[in-house]
Write a structure and sequence with these properties.
Helix content is about 10%, strand content about 35%. With about 575 residues, the chain is mainly beta. It has 3 domains: about 130 residues, Cupredoxins -  blue copper proteins (Immunoglobulin-like), CATH 2.60.40; about 200 residues, Cupredoxins -  blue copper proteins (Immunoglobulin-like, Sandwich); about 200 residues, Immunoglobulin-like (Sandwich). The longest helix has 20 residues. It is found in: Secreted, Extracellular space, Apoplast.
Length: about 575
């Protein structure tokens, strides 16, 4: 059933893309020079690895269906890779970017050119380093405008503005996680949050800058909001102004209005805002959300939504953001996001006859700490189905493509948790140990796949933003408590589920997603809380080739970075 439905999906997708490509797709070239630069914030100077000496890095701005070549020059002190978050890269996993998954790092003193192939993505995505915690400073927006002669499915805005929400640390991001992994304890919390690299006026350092967005009265603006924070979901609002959500993760959604947004790390949202209030200055503000036992700092970071020819009028008491632990506000906002039936979206085709079901439990765990730097007998790890992912030293894609998988990875990731228990109950005294391994799920081309992600109370509990590379998928359901495979599927939304690439799994709850395995390659799935991914809350989905050249992985480029020791 799934393969028959996939044939329909393929035909509709080809028809949709063919219509787009009747417009002339273009080829763009960018140069990224990645090196250490100094930045002074919180009255402290920090050296960061950044692109083209800027934080955040340069914006890529192209049109739907274009191809982008980015030549990345590593002029820094250690290797890294770059990922094009939310770009599906059809048949092109070689340029997806996650370190030791699809490539080895770009070493200092070398360069590597990525080929980024756009298909049906539209709106706002982003790019970031995908090595250790380097993405904390190596990051930027990836804006995909409508194709030539294509319109927005909403009133055309007068202008657009990218807003990147960030975590700021006084220190080198890679050194922070390296020290935490060596000692076995959690990495420290951020010192502040930032909006487009600005910390605002709430942290007490008079030299800190505040982001200002200049607007004209009665004009309409499209905000392109990216949560690039390391470990923090974020609420966002503009005082006295209503936000209209029009897209998430580069796919249009049914429009709805809200006084605030909830956006998880990795996610993007396109939002309309009208400058229709009294001429003046209004705070935009962001603060974290968490439902875990270990809360992030409850800092509010500010920017200014400033009308032309206005001054004064700022009033911090008017900032109305949900409380840091307001799960009702979070769940209410997410529940309103629905797909929209517009011609600018790919044809809606939710898998119904499922060929492969995967049920994954999410946890933080412990294992014995055996290094000389350990501060405690056990160290923190994280897991999916009790497997804590271990990154190999040769990338998995290369090993899979060359059929030399021995010692690199195995194809036996468990499709169900090894033990069923009360995942969301009181787990005091429950065994928290996890197994270490590099284990993948292998899918046949064209299979209809359902993944149910179950949050547990092992470790700190709480919600998780889970990102799948290589695909956009439908969020068909979510709920509280333990997933019930007999009754919960009856609550699925198969009519207008949002098409996304990063899914919010609620604390003490579950979320379900569906997609067709129609993109051959090796694709990473991981929590977008960086501490969890660093601890092993990751796995890999391998999609086998189909029966034709058009359904098979492209040959590797000759310029792939060499793996250490090869």
């Amino acid at each position: 059933m799934g393969l028959q439905q996939d044939t329909v999906t393929w035909f509709l997708g080809v028809l949709f893309l063919s219509t787009l490509f009747l417009c002339s797709a273009e080829v763009h070239h960018y140069e990224f020079f990645v090196r250490e630069s100094n930045f002074t914030k919180l009255c402290n100077t920090t050296t960061l690895l950044v692109v083209n000496d800027s934080y955040p890095g340069p914006e890529i701005r192209v049109r739907r269906g274009d191809t982008v070549f980015v030549n990345v020059h590593n002029q820094g002190n250690y290797g890294f890779t770059i990922h094009w978050h939310g770009v599906k890269q059809p048949r092109n996993p070689w340029f997806d970017g996650p370190e030791f998954i699809t490539q080895c790092p770009i070493q200092p003193g070398t360069n590597f050119t990525y080929e980024v192939i756009l298909s049906d993505e539209i709106g706002t995505l982003w790019w970031h380093a995908h090595s250790d915690w380097t993405r904390g400073s190596v990051q930027g927006a990836f804006i995909i405008l409508p194709a030539e002669n294509e319109t927005y499915p909403f009133p055309t805005p007068d202008a657009d503005q990218t807003i990147i929400l960030q975590s700021w640390y006084n220190g080198d991001y890679k050194q922070i996680i390296d020290q935490a992994l060596a000692t076995g304890i959690p990495p420290r919390q951020p010192d502040a949050y930032a909006i487009n690299g600005n910390l605002g006026d709430t942290y007490g350092c008079t030299n800190d800058t505040i982001f200002r967005m200049q607007v004209d009265y009665e004009k309409m603006y499209l905000l392109r909001i990216i949560n690039a924070a390391m470990n923090e979901q974020q609420f966002f609002a503009i005082t006295n102004h209503t936000l209209t959500v029009v897209a998430q993760d580069a796919s249009y959604v049914e429009r709805f209005t809200s006084d605030y947004l909830l956006i998880s790390p990795g996610q993007t949202m396109d939002v309309l805002v009208s400058a229709n209030q009294n001429v003046g200055q209004y705070y935009m503000a962001t603060r974290p959300f968490s439902d875990a036992s270990a809360m992030p700092p409850d800092n509010i970071t500010t920017g200014i939504f400033q009308y032309t020819n206005s001054d004064g009028g700022l009033n911090a008491s008017l900032i109305t953001l949900p409380a840091r632990d307001d799960t009702n506000a979070t769940n209410s906002f997410i529940s309103r996001i629905r797909n929209t039936n517009v011609t600018q979206n790919p044809p809606l085709n939710v898998p119904t006859g499922i060929d492969r079901r995967v049920f994954i439990t999410i946890a933080t765990n412990t294992v014995p700490c055996n290094t000389s730097q350990c501060l405690l007998p056990n160290r923190f790890v994280a897991s999916l189905n009790n497997v804590s992912f271990v990154f190999p030293r040769i990338d998995i894609l290369q090993a899979y493509y060359n059929s030399s998988t021995g010692g690199v990875f195995t194809e036996d990731f468990p499709l169900n948790p090894p033990v069923f228990y009360d995942f969301t109950g009181n787990l005091t005294g429950f065994n928290t140990r996890a197994e270490l391994g590099t284990r993948a799920v292998v899918l046949n081309y064209g299979e209809a796949v359902e993944i149910v992600l179950q949050a547990t109370q092992l470790g700190g509990g709480g919600s998780h933003p889970i990102h799948l590379h290589g695909f956009s998928f439908y969020r068909v359901g979510s709920g509280s408590g333990n997933f019930n495979k007999e009754t919960d599927p009856s609550t699925y939304n198969l009519v207008d589920p949002p098409l996304i690439n990063t899914i919010h799994v609620p604390g003490k709850g579950w979320a379900a997603l569906r997609f067709f395995a129609n993109n051959p390659g090796v694709w990473f799935m991981h929590c977008h809380f960086e501490r969890h991914s660093s601890w092993g809350m990751d796995t890999v989905f391998i999609v086998r080739n189909g029966t034709t050249t058009e359904t098979s992985i492209r040959p590797p480029p000759s310029t792939m970075p060499r793996c250490p020791g090869t």
